TrEMBL record:
Organism: Timema douglasi (Walking stick)
Start-end of Polar residues biased regions: 168-192, 266-278
UniProt GO BP: microtubule cytoskeleton organization
GO molecular function: microtubule binding
Repeat region (WD), residues: 806-847, 935-967, 1047-1082
Designated name of the protein: Echinoderm microtubule-associated protein-like 1
Length: 1082
């Protein structure tokens, strides 16, 4: 059958595509048309399928006609007669329309490319102009001549100074004609913005002097103004000026800037003209409303197109334009000031609404494109010699800090403060000692307590205190598995946060492996019992706003590469790292590790906690980074355990959610998987643990409470023991003598079976307040090591029972207070527990559940009374020896962030998250409290408090980076902060003061540093930050270039630090990792 129209071929092709298979024949299509196409034009049926058009064949052979179908030739002739012309018209019309649109699109793309290139030239011109202005400013400063200035009065009597440039040769960006009305609107916006901004307060930002004449800027390349509402300098006329014919600038040489950088010569066509002295002397600053010049844009559509082009160009250049500061519009979002290149957006006759909308769009496009490519949130500092003040920037906020008089005359921003000679050494990750341990091993503490004039009854009560608290610090059992082992040295190996702890119970000593940079998730012991492998999770660089598991650095040897998830193999005797494996190979974290046992531990198996839970086999001894033999997908569901078979080098067993898998590694390095067959038995939701018998059978525990034995070399069940525990079987341990110990998660029981899986009747119960069984490991002799879900470690046997040796907190810790005269400290956490610790014996003196989430704590002047602030706004007054609660008070409904006694003991200040500071008068040996008043003035929650040495003044920080001063007895703010520049402060916990300028890293956003603490001898300053680091500075850290010693160990944010009363040790508390670490000063 010969086609007489291409349209018919279209019909055939579309039909076979729709019908498919053997039914896609012409005869079937003809029958379908006769049945469904009555009164419906076929062109409408085919219109929505036009995208499936293909070239039709010239000849099509019809298949034999099937009975009962309409003859194909009749259908085809009708279709050709009535619809060929319509289809052809449709196709030709669509083709013409597409061709027209393509031509228009090509023209538009070419126009956009041309305009992008033009914008690039304008940006080059702007950079050159800015570099030249900076150079000229440096020349003025080097000559020592005063710079004339204007002053504009703003809020609270402070002044905004405008630097006036006087030089005939300074070139600026192109100037354009402005109307007087537009300039009046602009000039008024500066003072309006300053008056509307609630964040700029006189106490911390405003000048107390009538004039500023000389401002020296640190050589960082940034040009920061000393006005609260501007950050850059741009000359502009204040009255209409005739439009000059632009002349191209002469070729520019490489011009040195204040940073020592050079601006290379660039060809550009952007117009420039020399600026007269008169114009230069009328300089203005970019405010948050931008600078608007008339360049001929006359419509909103063209202006928005220009905004899009400029945002694209700005994003593509990715240049560090450090001269652009940030202008705060509200409390939460900071926007960059509008550069000259954006002035075209707001020219012409715009309504206020349209002008504001276009400007907001520019701000949004710019902000979203540069926040991750430009380092604009800096602490770049400038020093005002006349005022003796330093201006720093946190998250774009200018903050003025006044130097003490004795330091102001010689202050130099470029001075480098060396780190202290004193260093920190991790001494202890806190363990909770039992009564027996205390009395048998620390009897010498009795004499020490008596020597401190503590009564005998109190001393005996301290030593006889029972373990009535379920939680303390030191072990991660809440979400860990297979994380507790005993080494031949007698040390228990477990991990807390980013530290692997080796704890000798008998000698009461700890050693720590600190090679990891983030949470350790699993460990494995080599068959020789001396080598340990530990795997960590992916780090998170909060400052850069990126997670390493999704945005790793390109170089695996770069310093930041250790933030990737990886495995570290190390020697447990020397703590020396033998190999670092898998950098760049794992996505999230290593959840399972196992050394091969049949060949002496040459291979290492690892499972990545990624969506596919990839399993990989490594020859870990090949080079410093090992060699990966193979990798394959393990399971799309959770994997909780992976173990090499003890008798078969090529066999690996994994288990997890709804599966157990038996893997075989062939000679070619390929893994083959066989799934465990549960047959007709109930398939468990989770297979929770693995173990091996002496004969090579596999033992698994599951969420149904059953124990299953799998025959060696098979994937089928050989024996099933039902209902071993109520709830899940979390752990199975095979002892050297062949006995099998099982641990239950819900019932908290340990049960023993013999080698033939017969119940021996021996069992014991873990106390409920210590948690459920998470892992059981073999100890010395018949002893067992038991880790629980409440971060506790117990040691004992089924015959004599179990006793706790290490316990751990289960929620964040924020409260930390150091005893004023004893080597003790107190911690308080969100798990409602308060612990009083002894730093010498590394034990808990007492523990109390206060039934409230604790946020802060403080000791009274003599240490007899403790204040505990809670997240509900309540605060408790407790006896530090008897734990008796004297009283409970409430101030507001927000957390009490900080509590501080005055140095004379007569006042108590409480900083709340409701933005207020509550001041109380203290009497009756710190047992009675009468409110003096409330200090109101902060616009955000209180973060830190410090008392002056004479107990008259308070200084406080808030969440929006304010530093305010108060008269404590009157509860009134002292607005002239310069008056307190020479006040001696009893402590320095405020992170934002003149003496802590150097603790803020480059690019800090104001929340990076959680706490600072000055040593009692005022020589050292310790900080706790959001990157899991404890840092030690020389005090004061008053210079931006202050060097320090940095120490890891915590895996998440460090919430607090404190020096003991004699400065012999430093205590740090962790947030998410719930750990307490004790550092020795050496």
């Amino acid at each position: 059958f010969k086609l007489i129209s291409p349209a018919f071929g279209v019909i055939l092709v579309w039909t076979e595509g729709e019908r498919g298979g053997a039914e896609g024949r012409v005869t079937s299509f003809g029958q379908w048309c006769c049945q469904t196409n009555r009164g419906i034009p076929l062109v409408k049926i085919l219109a929505f399928k036009i995208i499936r058009l293909v070239t039709a064949a010239d000849h099509v052979t019809l298949p034999p006609q099937e009975p009962g179908l309409v003859p194909a030739d009749l259908v085809m002739s009708l279709l050709i007669e009535y619809y060929t012309e319509a289809l052809l018209n449709l196709l030709h019309g669509s083709h013409d329309m597409i061709e027209t649109e393509n031509e228009s699109l090509r023209e538009r793309v070419a126009d956009l490319e041309k305009k992008v290139l033009e914008q690039g030239d304008e940006i080059v011109c702007l950079r050159s102009t800015l570099a030249d202005v900076l150079r000229r400013l440096n020349q003025f400063e080097s000559r020592g001549g005063p710079i004339p200035e204007n002053r504009i009065p703003v809020r609270n009597g402070s002044v905004v100074h405008r630097v006036l440039l006087q030089n005939n040769h300074v070139q600026s960006s192109p100037q354009y004609k402005d109307s007087p009305s537009s300039m009046k609107k602009y000039q008024g916006s500066v003072s309006d913005l300053a008056s509307r901004d609630p964040l700029r307060r006189a106490a911390s930002y405003a000048s107390s002097l009538p004039q500023r004449r000389v401002v020296h800027y640190q050589s960082t390349g940034s040009l920061h103004s000393d006005s609260p509402s501007s950050n850059s300098v741009s000359p502009v006329p204040t009255s209409p000026s005739p439009t000059h014919t632009p002349t191209p600038p002469p070729p520019q040489r490489a011009t040195p800037t204040s940073t020592g950088r050079t601006t290379p010569t660039q060809k550009h066509s952007a117009p420039q003209r020399p600026t007269s002295v008169g114009n230069l002397s009328l300089a203005k600053r970019w405010s948050s409303t931008g600078d608007f010049h008339n360049v001929g844009i006359t419509s909103p559509q063209s202006a928005m197109a220009t905004a899009s082009r400029q945002a694209h160009q700005f994003r593509s250049t990715r240049a560090p334009i450090r001269g652009w500061g940030w202008v705060t519009v509200n409390n939460d979002v900071d926007f960059p000031p509008t550069p000259d290149g954006a002035d075209t957006l707001l020219s012409g006759d715009w309504s206020p609404v349209t002008r504001g909308y276009v400007q907001l769009m520019w701000r949004w496009l710019t902000l979203t494109s540069v926040t991750h490519s430009l380092v604009l949130w800096t602490r770049d500092a400038s020093f005002n010699e006349e005022e003796g003040s330093v201006r720093i920037f946190l998250r774009g906020r200018p903050i003025v800090l006044y130097a003490p008089s004795e330091l102001a005359e010689s202050y130099d921003l470029n001075k480098v403060t060396t780190p202290p000679q004193t260093r920190l050494k991790l001494e202890w990750v806190m363990a909770y000692m039992t009564q027996r341990d205390i009395t048998s091993r620390f009897g010498h503490l009795y004499a020490a307590l008596v020597a401190q004039n503590i009564s005998q009854s109190t001393t005996m009560e301290i030593f006889n205190t029972t373990l009535d608290s379920p939680d303390s610090y030191g072990y991660r059992g809440r979400d860990g598995r297979s994380n507790l082992y005993l080494l031949p040295t007698g040390e228990m190996v477990y991990f807390v946060a980013a530290a692997v702890v080796l704890y000798n119970v008998e000698e009461q000593s700890q050693r720590h492996y600190l090679g990891h940079t983030d949470d350790v998730k699993c460990i494995a012991i080599h068959p020789n019992k001396l080598i340990v492998a530990s795997g960590q999770t992916a780090g998170h660089d909060r400052r850069e706003g990126r997670s390493w598991k999704f945005n790793p650095p390109p170089d695996r040897t770069a310093p930041e590469a250790d933030q990737w998830p990886h495995i570290r193999v190390w020697n447990s005797v020397s703590l020396h790292t033998l190999s670092v494996i898998g950098i760049g190979e794992f996505e999230r974290s290593i959840c399972c590790l196992s050394f091969s046992k049949a060949d002496g531990g040459t291979l290492l198996c690892a499972v990545d906690e990624a969506p596919d839970h990839n399993i990989s086999i490594w020859d870990w001894q090949k080079g410093e980074r090992g060699q990966k033999i193979t990798e394959t997908k393990c399971s799309s569901d959770t994997v909780v355990a992976a173990e090499f078979h003890p008798l078969d080098r090529t066999c690996v067993v994994t288990c997890g959610k709804s599966h157990i898998s038996f893997w075989t590694l062939d000679a070619g390095g390929t893994l083959y998987k066989r799934m465990g067959v549960f047959e007709s038995r109930d398939k468990p939701k989770y297979v929770t643990c693995l173990a091996f018998t002496e004969t090579g059978d596999v033992i698994s525990g599951d969420s149904n409470g059953n124990v299953i034995i799998w025959g060696r070399g098979t994937n089928t069940i050989s024996k099933l023991i039902k209902n071993v525990h109520e709830g899940s079987v979390f752990s199975v341990c095979v002892m050297k003598e062949g006995q099998i110990i099982t641990g239950g998660g819900k019932d908290g029981r340990l049960k023993q079976y013999d080698a033939q899986f017969n119940d021996t009747g021996l069992e014991t119960q873990v106390p409920e307040h210590l948690g459920s069984v998470r892992v059981v490991s073999e100890g010395r002799g018949s002893q067992l090591l038991v880790g629980t879900t409440k971060n506790c470690i117990l040691i004992g046997s089924l015959e004599v029972g179990l006793s706790p040796t290490v316990l751990g907190h289960t929620d964040e810790l924020w409260g930390l207070a150091v005893h004023p005269s004893l080597p003790q400290f107190l911690t308080a956490g969100h798990d409602r527990l308060v612990h009083l610790w002894d730093s010498m014996s590394h034990s808990v003196v007492w523990s109390k559940d206060i039934a409230e989430q604790a946020q802060s704590a403080a000791f009274s002047l003599d240490g007899s009374v403790i204040i505990v602030g809670c997240t509900s706004g309540k605060w408790l007054v407790m006896d530090s020896e008897t734990r008796e609660v004297y009283s409970m008070h409430t101030d507001g409904g927000e957390p009490i962030q900080v509590a501080r006694f005055s140095p004379d003991g007569g006042f108590l200040a409480l900083g709340s998250r409701d933005n207020n500071i509550y001041v109380y008068q203290v009497s009756e040996e710190a047992r009675k409290y009468s409110r003096v008043g409330r200090c109101s003035g902060h616009s955000s929650f209180i973060t830190h408090l410090d008392w002056s040495a004479d107990s008259q003044f308070l200084q406080s920080n808030s969440g929006d980076y304010e530093l305010l001063y108060w008269n404590a007895s009157l509860c009134r703010q002292i607005t002239q902060s310069s008056e307190l520049r020479d006040v001696e402060w009893a402590s320095n916990t405020c992170t934002l003061t003149f003496n802590t300028i150097g603790i803020w890293p480059e690019g800090a956003d104001g929340t990076d540093v959680n706490q600072s603490e000055r040593s009692h001898d005022a020589r050292l300053l310790a900080t706790a930050d959001d990157f899991g680091k404890v840092k030690l500075y020389s005090y004061p850290a008053a210079y931006p270039k202050s060097l320090c010693h940095t120490y890891g160990g915590h895996s998440s944010h460090v919430t607090n630090v404190g020096f003991l009363h004699d400065d012999s040790r430093l205590i740090s508390t962790g947030g998410r990792d719930t750990s307490v670490m004790q550092w020795m000063l050496v």
